[in-house]
Write a structure and sequence with these properties.
Order of helices and strands: HHHHH
Radius of gyration: 12 Å
Shape: globular
Distance between the termini: 24 Å
Number of strands: 0
Helix content: over 70%
């Protein structure tokens, strides 16, 4: 398995969700990305996907689950990722 870093997953989520972000959300996300606060960007982007009822591609969800396991964030994101996984893929 290829390790997925905070940076990689944050940018992948930003690419997938960019069209769904408000001007304010986009500014905050890209400010977080530009200042290497990747975890903050991931957190915000996952909540955007959840509250906007936006389906993420299956590969992105797989990498998110791998990222959670690698960085021991399963407790933090398990319920959110389970709800995102139930969405039909786009």
């Amino acid at each position: 398995m290829i390790a997925t870093t905070d940076r990689q997953i944050a940018w992948e989520l930003a690419d997938n969700l960019n069209a769904h972000l408000s001007v304010e959300q986009r500014a905050v996300v890209f400010m977080n990305l530009g200042s290497a606060h990747h975890s903050a960007a991931i957190h915000r982007l996952l909540h955007v996907a959840l509250h906007g009822q936006i389906a993420l591609p299956p590969g992105t969800l797989e990498r998110l689950h791998a990222w959670c396991r690698i960085y021991h964030r399963e407790d933090e994101y398990a319920s959110l990722l389970a709800r995102l996984r139930k969405r039909p893929a786009r």
